[in-house]
């Protein structure tokens, strides 16, 4: 497949490259095999050689391709009640909403398939191509989740919950030993599900998932860390999220969250820790030294944490950071909203610094370019996606979304994107246009989404 037109990506934090009139070619395995300006000698030769045998998609003015978004933290079963219960503090919200919904899906496979199919379709609609997911306790329900995402063509990192402590007596694993046997069984079955596929089509992978310290005994955390290290597995959890949760860990374990995870070998280069709002500078340095990634979830932090995440401080010392929606702790599944909220929170922190309420010699704000990096390239790095993911370059997988801003004939904007003057004059897409889309765009601007070169389509949702 050949694509010609404008491409937008963020090779590094704060940099947005707008590449007008480029030619991109994708091979049968879904990797980019050519990417250069359309008028280059190599592009002309490539067209002469391949145009007769490959379809060419030519993007019209007002259109561009962008890497797909990465969501580093989402609770799949909580999609069932997305947008409810946000008036409660975290630990009470878990009791009254989260555990109940997860247990309901564990007892009803048909409902689980319906919820997960709807979730997959929403992610495609909103341009998310890769997502790290918390599941439930029961193995079968998590395998349903994995099968749905495999059929949808999305990159899904599936975490069967490990928890041998719970405030809900009917929703808990009986012991650390039972939990460790269960996670090994789940991982074996999920790997078997994809083992017959070519490596580049194994888009769904398992993740070791201790829910968080209050639901895991020390024995379980130790066992999960050991197993993840032996099997070279990804890890995800929640770290220093909310005031009541942090106090519980200090009281019951006599340590900080980050110390508990580190002691049990659960801070690794393959780990994504969500939230981290109560981490101070030394703790952020520890995260950096362990090469662990943080999933920044600004919307859910506003509801459940008494502190905003120290995003600028983390970025300044080189911590790997991506964005998460944290559905249903966050009510929006759209990473575009997470980008905007990350900027808003950072600007409020900068306002507090300006007023003397935060001690810092440097600005604490981030801008839209940095947020776009976190949603694409930064998230891809945090998830450990194939080399070059989150950018357009030769050898990278073609994970992309097609954005349409306006039509020239007749001149009109798409969705919330209004057009008053078209100043193309042969210069193509401008930075102002991309910024305007970043602020105002929505799913009406998204015409298509591809993962590993395959154009995604909505999957049937069983009624």
From TrEMBL:
<dbReference type="GO" id="GO:0046098">
    <property type="term" value="P:guanine metabolic process"/>
</dbReference>
<dbReference type="InterPro" id="IPR032466">
    <property type="entry name" value="Metal_Hydrolase"/>
</dbReference>
<dbReference type="Pfam" id="PF01979">
    <property type="entry name" value="Amidohydro_1"/>
</dbReference>
<keyword id="KW-0479">Metal-binding</keyword>
<keyword id="KW-0862">Zinc</keyword>
<dbReference type="InterPro" id="IPR011059">
    <property type="entry name" value="Metal-dep_hydrolase_composite"/>
</dbReference>
<keyword id="KW-0378">Hydrolase</keyword>
<protein>
    <recommendedName>
        <fullName>Amidohydrolase-related domain-containing protein</fullName>
    </recommendedName>
</protein>
<dbReference type="GO" id="GO:0008892">
    <property type="term" value="F:guanine deaminase activity"/>
</dbReference>
<dbReference type="InterPro" id="IPR006680">
    <property type="entry name" value="Amidohydro-rel"/>
</dbReference>
<feature type="domain" description="Amidohydrolase-related">
    <location>
        <begin position="64"/>
        <end position="416"/>
    </location>
</feature>
<dbReference type="GO" id="GO:0008270">
    <property type="term" value="F:zinc ion binding"/>
</dbReference>
<dbReference type="GO" id="GO:0005829">
    <property type="term" value="C:cytosol"/>
</dbReference>
<dbReference type="InterPro" id="IPR051607">
    <property type="entry name" value="Metallo-dep_hydrolases"/>
</dbReference>
